[in-house]
Design a protein that fits this description.
single chain, mainly alpha, Rna Polymerase Sigma Factor, Chain: A, Arc Repressor Mutant, subunit A, 2 domains, 0% strand, disordered N terminus
Length: 302
Amino acid sequence: MVSSAQIKLEASPGVPVKDPLRDLLFGVVRSDSRAFSELYELTSPRLYALCLRTTGRADLAEEALQEGYIRIWKSASQFDPARGSALAWITTVVRNRARTLAVKTYRQAAIVDDGYDMADAPDAHAVSGFDKVLSAERVRRVRACLSGVDGDKKRALLLVYFEGLTHQELAGRLDVPLGTAKSWVRRGLHQMGRCLGGGDGMRGEAVHDLLAAEHELGVLPPTATPAFQRRRDADAKYCAAADRWADDFAALLTLLAPVRPRDAVWEGISRETRASPRARFERWHGLLVALIISVLIVFQFL
């Protein structure tokens, strides 16, 4: 198991030292409903837009968003600030739920077109307060590097990220052979990684970095995913690479125009997250156990 101290040595560039979402998540761990409400207000418009892209249906997007935030409330203690930004963690939770629902319902046609014209992308901080949760420098770098990816490869990356397409679905959407779809994704990650890494010979080129990119994008074959996750937990190099890509992919949210979910979504979340005294006890007990385990792991590497 990789210790927090090891991971911090390979921290991602561009992640702000002060992360308001991190502080809000810590508040959620303490069952602070105000912190949870603020976290939802800051992040839900972009994540709802992402859910709409991924599921293709407003009802499924609302379901994914609601279930995602309920899980965030219940699992906030699992967030480790040494392993990436709070926004990346939150985005992963909600995006995974949206992808699962899309697969279960045989994925509907997208609600909106898939042009993704970079020139028409909204301002990175179009939602009031969104500038608080993203590093402006990271957003600038990610957008610039994505703009430099060749057209077909860039479109493939964005379709996979925003709509959660598999390689097979991507090939069908673009009407190209499966091998071509896979190649476009891999080469797109290669180009983007080289740019983000400044040609350091690692990002977008090293095997561990490309595997991490495919894992965070969601295109790593299911048979290879468990092995990668075990390697990530045991090897700081794999862990740091995955965390960097997760943070960079989260910055892609700024390419989506924010869509505010209906009030009914938050009302449903609120009903499910009202903690009873016993639930609060179990929550604190779980946090204490996790803290003790983390301390023991860190001491093993001292």
